[in-house]
Design a protein that fits this description.
With 89 residues, this protein is mainly alpha-helical. The protein is 72% helix and 0% strand.
């Protein structure tokens, strides 16, 4: 087991009070800490699977019913309205 040295940000700020980059990294650290990383992971997997599925359908020569395309567009549009409250037309 390795010993790790933890750096106290407040002691660094006292030692270097006018360091601009420290403020930049501290802001990003707080922003990244607020991100729910499990959602980022699931949404990334979802998008990757969508691209793989779309490539499979296009390359395999399967036909897509026009009603399926319209239904998919309507579902995507209404979910966008539900997320942002704005029409994405």
């Amino acid at each position: 087991m390795m010993n790790s040295t933890k750096v106290d940000i407040e002691s660094v700020e006292k030692a270097v009070p006018n360091n601009v980059t420290l403020g930049f990294f501290k802001r990003w650290q707080t922003k990244l800490a607020k991100v729910k990383w499990s959602n980022v992971f699931y949404l990334s997997i979802l998008h990757i699977l969508f691209v793989i599925g779309g490539a499979y359908v296009l390359l395999s020569g399967q036909t897509i019913n026009m009603y399926t395309v319209i239904f998919t567009y309507v579902i995507g549009l209404t979910s966008g309205i539900g997320m942002s409250g704005k029409c994405l037309c």
